[in-house]
Amino acid sequence: MQFRTRAIHVGNHRCRETGAVVPPIHLASTFVQPGAGDWGEYDYSRSGNPTRKALETTLASLEGGCGALCFASGMAATHGVVGMFSSGDHIVAGSDIYGGTYRLLHQITSRAGIEVTLADSTDLAAIEAAITPATKLVWIESPGNPRMTITDIGACAEIAHRHGALLGVDSTFATPVLTRPLELGADIVMHSATKYLGGHSDLMGGALVVREQSLFDELYFVQNATGAIMGPLEAFLCSRGVKTLELRVREQSQTAQRLADWLATHDQVERVLYPGLPDHPGHDVAKRQMDGAFGAMLTFELRGDYAAAKRFVESTQLFQLAVSLGAVESLIEQPASMSHASYAAEDRAKHGITDGMIRLSVGLEAFEDLRADLERAFG
Ligand code: PLP
Q: What is the CA radius of gyration of the chain?
């Protein structure tokens, strides 16, 4: 079955009792057992819930994994991954990553004695140089956040595996419509389901999809032991969102490409960071590892300072000033003061997150209306 057919039918069984074509939402926290010490398919909703399981089954199919685990948020999912490691272990993370992941790694994971090194993941030699004998995980995002860097996932998998480490990919921006990291050799794919998977700015969620059963079992153990599971209502909403994932992502990506082409010619724009532009340093890798489009996130730099960028993001109307991304509504933000405010100032500077940067999450509105909104903000 094709991707969009699986997004609708895999995991979403019609209700056997009523024939309802949409499965019910199972809110039960506990399930009657066949006998004492005799566990049925479900026993307690932290350990497993039919509505969550339906979504996990769909996501495993879309990413080509052996199984998926859904969490309360993207951060909870990433926390689940680092929960596998212990004192003395080492993680190499890309430098163009979500600010919250940076904070988790530097201010929470580090408390457990796990060391973290940031490296430019577009530079394979830098990734390899950052690996030590204690490295257990290489963690990357592609496209990266907020500079839209493109990392060669297959090459990173080869490097990580050669050193006995796992490769985890935060694929929130790409979605399985455009990139399937497990097919490229990654071990774990992570999504903030809050974003494109849900797609409508109305749920918080996270997901991990893995290639191998032994790793799935380890992550399931961490999830069940720590309890940051996705609730059934969120799982239902996310399943509904996933049914239109391919249509939304392809349409939104097309609009983003048109906006990037237009912004690249604008005299008040210093540069546009969008992998669909031929002069983007990751364009060739993106063409190889992204399926026919380059995503709906784009960043540009104003010819102007922090205050000018702040004024700009505060003056659009259709592009609403908010963090988050990936929904039908377009959003705008200033990474330096919003999504990446948790970076240490020197790390922001070192990793190219400038004050004039503006990040757009391009929604489903008409291109002409979005362009007119930005035109008004340029003044
Ligand atoms: N990864 C990326 C790329 C994100 O943009 C976000 C949130 O903005 C997260 C992870 C964290 O996800 P959540 O907010 O669902 O915890």
A: 21
